[in-house]
C-alpha cells in the first residue's frame, strides 16, 4: 500500500501595521527604529515560509497597504484585514480566503515576529503536526503560541494572552519539542537577543545594523 502524500500548506501571516506594532521594543530606539524592526521580523518570517518545502502559498493579512506591497514583492499574496483588532477573527478570515484560493492546501497560522525562523525547521514542525485535529507550537516562554494548524473545517485558533492554555483547553495537540527558531517570537529586547543568538534573517540583521548606527 502506498504511503499517504504529505499535506501541503498555505501559511497565514497576520501583520499588524508596523507603525503601531512592537511597543515593548521602544527601548531599542526611536519610533522609526521600532517600525523598521517590526517590518524586518515580518519580512524574515514570510521569506522563511516561502522557502519551506511543504508550504505552497503564503497569505499575509495587513491593513498597512504600503507594507503589503513590500511583502507581496517577496512572492506572497496579501489581503487587507477586514476585522482589525481581533487576531483570531483575522485568521479565520484568512483561512476562508485561503480555502477559496487553494482548497487543497491546509491552513497554518504563524506569528509575524519569528525573525530567526528557518525553513527547514518549519518543515520539520509541519511534518510532526497532525491535521487530524488542531495542533500548535507553544512559544519559547511556554505561555503563547507561534504556529497553529488545523484543517479548514476545524480551524479555530485561540491566539492572544495565555494562548497555549487556551489551545490546550480547546483540545488542540501541543508539539513540545519544536526547534527553537519556530518558538522564538520577539516581543521584548531579551527575546531579540535570543533570536540574534539563534541567527536572524537578512532583513532583521540589516535593521539591527541601522539601529546600531543611529544610536
Low-confidence stretches: none
How many domains would you count in the coordinates? 1
For this structure, the CATH topology is Spore Coat Polysaccharide Biosynthesis Protein SpsA, Chain A
CATH superfamily: Spore Coat Polysaccharide Biosynthesis Protein SpsA, Chain A
Tell the overall outline: globular
Briefly, what CATH class?
A: Alpha Beta
What is the CATH architecture term?
Alpha-Beta Complex
**Overall pLDDT, averaged?**
91
Q: Write down the Rg.
A: 16 Å
First-to-last CA distance: 62 Å
Overall strand count: 7
Tell me about this structure:
A seven-stranded mixed beta sheet has the order 3-2-1-4-6-5-7, sandwiched between helices. It is 41% helix and 15% strand. The model has no long low-confidence stretch (mean pLDDT 91). It has helices at residues 31-51, 65-72, 87-101, 119-128, 163-169, 180-183, 189-198, 202-214, and strands at 9-14, 55-61, 77-79, 106-110, 135-138, 145-149, 173-174. It is an alpha/beta fold and 215 residues long. The protein has one domain (9-210): Spore Coat Polysaccharide Biosynthesis Protein SpsA, Chain A. It catalyses: phosphoenolpyruvate + GTP + H(+) = enolpyruvoyl-2-diphospho-5'-guanosine + diphosphate. GO terms for molecular function: phospholactate guanylyltransferase activity. Keywords: GTP-binding, Nucleotide-binding, Nucleotidyltransferase, Transferase.
Amino acid at each position: 500500500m502506498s504511503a499517504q502524500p504529505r499535506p501541503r500548506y498555505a501559511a497565514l501571516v497576520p501583520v499588524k501595521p508596523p507603525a503601531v506594532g512592537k511597543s515593548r521594543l521602544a527601548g531599542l530606539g526611536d519610533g522609526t527604529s521600532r517600525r523598521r524592526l517590526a517590518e524586518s521580523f515580518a519580512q524574515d518570517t514570510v521569506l522563511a515560509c516561502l522557502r519551506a518545502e511543504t508550504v505552497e502559498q503564503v497569505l499575509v493579512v495587513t491593513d498597512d497597504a504600503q507594507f503589503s506591497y513590500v511583502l507581496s514583492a517577496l512572492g506572497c499574496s496579501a489581503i487587507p484585514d477586514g476585522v482589525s483588532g481581533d487576531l483570531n477573527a483575522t485568521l479565520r478570515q484568512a483561512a476562508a480566503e485561503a480555502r477559496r484560493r487553494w482548497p487543497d492546501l491546509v491552513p497554518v497560522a504563524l506569528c509575524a515576529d519569528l525573525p530567526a525562523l528557518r525553513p527547514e525547521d518549519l518543515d520539520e514542525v509541519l511534518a510532526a503536526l497532525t491535521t487530524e485535529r488542531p495542533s500548535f507550537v507553544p512559544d519559547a516562554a511556554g505561555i503563547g503560541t507561534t504556529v497553529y494548524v488545523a484543517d479548514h473545517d476545524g480551524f479555530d485558533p485561540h491566539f492572544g494572552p495565555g494562548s497555549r492554555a487556551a489551545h490546550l483547553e480547546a483540545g488542540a495537540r501541543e508539539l513540545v519539542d519544536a526547534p527553537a527558531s519556530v518558538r522564538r517570537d520577539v516581543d521584548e529586547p531579551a527575546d531579540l537577543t535570543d533570536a540574534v543568538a539563534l541567527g536572524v534573517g537578512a532583513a532583521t540583521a540589516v535593521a539591527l545594523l541601522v539601529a546600531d548606527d543611529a544610536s
